[in-house]
Fold each of these.
Amino acid sequence: MNLKIGTRGSKLALTQTNFVAEKLKKVIPDINIEICIIKTSGDIMQDVSLLKIGGQGVFVKELEEALLSNKIDLAVHSMKDVPGDIPEGLMFAAILPREDVRDVLVSRNNIKMEFMPKGAKIGTGSQRRGAQIKAMMPDVNIVPLRGNIDTRLKKIEAENLTGVILAAAGMKRMGLAERITQFLPVETMLPAVGQGALGLQIRKSDVELAKACSGLNDATTAAEVAAERSYLRALGGGCRLPIAALGKLDGQMLVLEGMLAAPNGTTVIREKISGTIKDAEEMGKKLAEIILDKGGRRLLDLM
C-alpha cells in the first residue's frame, strides 16, 4: 500500500507524523509512506492573531482540502486544532492514546505561577489560557504570542517575558520536558478541547485504510475527545470566546468538565457532568446547555 501522509511543517508536527508513520508500519507491514508537508494559513501568517485569520481551523483547512482533492491519503492533526465540524466526506479513522492534557509554564528563573510579581508578562496566543490566567491573577499582563515551541521559548528572553504557557504534550513530544517550570493543574487551567490527542483523518470512501488505521484507535481517548468536541459544536462553531473542556473516562463512567469565559477573565463559567461512555455525544450537548443557561448566552450576546 502506498500512503501519502499530510502534515504541517513544524518540528512538532513532523515529530508527531513520524511517530504515526512508525505505528502504521507495524499494523500495515507492506506500506510505503510518503510524508507531504502542507503549509497552512496558520503557519504562513504568524504575525497575526489566530482570531483575525479565522480562529480555530487555520491549522487544518489546507490539510483537509488536500485530502478532499486526493493530494494526500491521510492527515495527522493535533485534535485541539480541529474545529467542531469537519468537511463532508472526511472522517477520523483513529484517535491515538492521549499525551499529558495539561498546560505548562516555562518561566524566567523558574518562577512558579503563585510567585509571579505584579505586572508579570505572560506570553500566550490562546484566549483560553489568557482568560484563565487573568481569572487567577488579574494583575498579570498577557502578551500575545505566536510561533512554534522554539520561537515561543526564545521570546522569553527576546521580549523580556516573565514566562510563557505551552501544552505539556508538545513539550514532552519534543523532548523539552526539562525546560518546564510548572505543570498547571486542570483545576485552575482547563485544557483545550482535544488537547494532547492526535487524530488520523481520511476520506470516508477509503474503507481499506479505515480498517488498517482502526488498530491504532484508543477507545478511551476517542470517547473523551468525542464528548469534548460535542460540547464545542454545541456552543457554535464560530464561537470566539475562550472555551475549554476535558473528558475523563473511568471504567464506563465519563466525567466531562467544560468552561466558557470572557476574554479578560472577569467571568468564567465552569461546570461538569457525568454519564456513561455511550452518552459521550449527548453529554457534550447537555453540558453546553447548562453553561449557556448559567450565563454563557449573555457572554455570547456581548460578542
Amino acid sequence: MKLTSKIIRMELEITKPLLENRGLDIHRKGQDRIGELMTRANRKRLIFEDVAFSRCSGCMISKRTRSRHVILYLHGGGYVAGNIEYAKGYGSVLSSKYDISVLCVGYRLAPEAPFPAALEDAFEAYRYLIDNGYDEKHIILCGESAGGGLCYALCHKLKETGIPLPLGIIAISPWMDLTQSGTSYELNEKRDPSMSKQRLDFFASQYVQDNDPRNIYISPLYGDMSDFPRSIIFVGQDEILLDDSRRLDNRLREAGVRSEINIAKGMWHAYILYGLRENRDDERKIRSFIWEIVNE
C-alpha cells in the first residue's frame, strides 16, 4: 500500500532538526538504509549484475533480459552520501516500474573525493554504456538532487569532449546551482520538511572545496544548454530547491530545448522517491516521457 504525503511529512518534520549539525556518518547511514529498503521490495523481480569501474562500483539492473534502452541513474545525497546500495534502491524502482534496464553508479563521495570525482565517475559510466553497445539514442539519464545536477554537468562534459549526448533526462529536484542563489532557498526554508539551506551549505563546501562554485561542471545552470537532450523535471512546490528547477526549465527553453516542468503542490525535496499515493500521475508522466522519446 502506498504511503500518504501527510504521514511522510510528519516524519520528515520530526527528523529534519535532528540531522542539522550532525556528522557525515549519520547522513550516510540513513541514506544507505533507505536504498536497502527500496531494493528489498523489488529484488525478487529483477537481476542485479555488478559492474566494476576504475574508481567506483556500479550495478546493471534489469528484468530477465536487458532492454534495448537503458537509464543511467545518478543518485542524490549532496555529493557526500549514497553508496551503490543506495543507488540500487531507486534504480530498482525505475527498472521495475518502467520495464527498462538501469545502470546505477556508486560514484566517489566528498570530502574524501571532492569535485571532479563524481563527474569523472559519471563520465566513465556513460562511456561504459557506449562501449557496450548502447549508442546515445538508447541512453536516458535520471537523477535526483545532486544526481539531477550531475546529469546536466555530465552533458556539459560530453558536449565539451564531442561525445554524443543522451536521448533524454529525467530530473528529480535537481541541485543545479551550488551557489544557492535562488530565492526559494530562503522563502521555502520553513516549508520544506526534508532539507535545509544550512545542510546544503555544508554539502557544497565538502564537494566544491577550493573550486569556483559557478564552474559549469559544479553548477551546470550557468553553462550553455543548447543542443541538450529533452528533459522532464519534477520538483516540490514547498522545497528550497524549487528555483533551481524553475531556472533550469527556463534556461533549457531559452536554448531551444524541449523541457517540461512539473511542480507538485505541497511537496518537498525529492518527493518522488517516497512512492506516495499522490505520485501516481507523476509516475504516469515518467512512463509517457520514456515511451515518447524512445519512439520518436
Amino acid sequence: MTEIFVGSKQLMIEDKIKNISFPVLLQYPTLESSRPISFGPYTMNVSPDAKIIERQFPLIIISHGNGGSHLLYRTISTHLAKNGYIVAMLEHYGNNRNNNKLENTTENLVTRPRHVSLTIDILLSDKWFSNYIEQYKIGVIGHSLGGYTALALAGGVPRTKEGLVIKVASDSRIKAIVLLAPGTGWFMDSLTKVTIPILMFTAEHDPITPKWNGEIVLNYVPDKSKVTFKEIENSGHFSFLSPFPMTMKNENFLPSTDPVGFDREKFHSYLPTDILDFLNDKLNGN
C-alpha cells in the first residue's frame, strides 16, 4: 500500500476591505516523503510545497482560541492531512499570541468568522488548490473562541451582553463542525439555525469555558441528534492543544498545563482519530 505523507504550504490571506492580512498554514496529502520541519518552536513532519495527490479532498479550517496560535493543533491537522483532508490553519488577525489588540471587542467577534469564510473563498479560487477541494465537503474545527467562530459560521446568531445582535455572516458551505471546549456565551437561545452535525468535546476541569458553555449547545441546537458530545475526564481547557515541547512546559505557562494526572500526550494519540472518524462519517459518509 502506498504511504501517504503530509505536504505543507504557507499562504498570506488579504482582507482588502480591512486592509490587513493574516497567515494560513496548509497541510494536505502527498506522496513526497516528509521530514521534521521547524515552525517557530514547534516541529512537524511535513514536505514543504510538495505536490498534492491528484484527487479531490474535503477541506477543514481550524480556528484557534483567544490570543492563541494556528500552530497549536498540529497533532489534529497532521493526522487529518495524512488521512485524506486538506487542512487550513489560520491565525486570526488581532486575536493571536503576537497581536491581541482585538481581544474582548465586538469587531473580533465579527472578523473571526469573516476570515474563515475569506480563507475558504481564496482556497476555492486558488489555482494551486481549487482543483483538489471537494467544495461540498467543508468543515470547521474550533477551540475555545474558535468554537464561537464555528457556531457563528454554522448559523448561530451572536449577541452582546446587552442583547444586541452582532451582525455576522454564516457560511452555508460548511457542512460539519467540531467544537473543542467552545466559548458559547454569545448564543443564549440563538442556535435555532444551526442544523449541521456537531462533534463537541468539553473538559471536566475548565475555568475558562465552564460546563454551561457546552450546555448551551446541548440545550439550544434544535435537533439534538445532530450533536455528538463527549466530556473528557480530568482534562482542562488547554488539554486540546497539541503537547508542547519539553522546553516550553512550565507551570507558569498555562497553555502547557493540565490537571494533575492528565496525560496530554496519550489524549492526543486518540483525539485526532475521534475527530477523523466523525468527519469521515459526516462529510464522506464512510
